[in-house]
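Please annotate the following for my students:
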Amino acid sequence: MATFSQRMKQLRKEKKLTQQQLADQFSVKLRTCQGYEYGESYPEVAKLVAIADFFDVSLDYLMGRSEIRERR
């Protein structure tokens, strides 16, 4: 099963976004966004919800707890 960092990278690439563009979208520094993708850090809950909404996936999918992308 995928991890949060793997899902972040996968979803970003599917939307053809750079790490900088994603960082700008969520008002975080580039290094913060890189930390998410490298598994060095995790966003706060409110940011996780915003990321899931942006990519139109469930939190469980984003966190690697489910293979089902759709939100309920």
In short: The two ends are 20 Å apart (CA to CA). The longest helix spans residues 4-14. The chain has a mean pLDDT of 95.
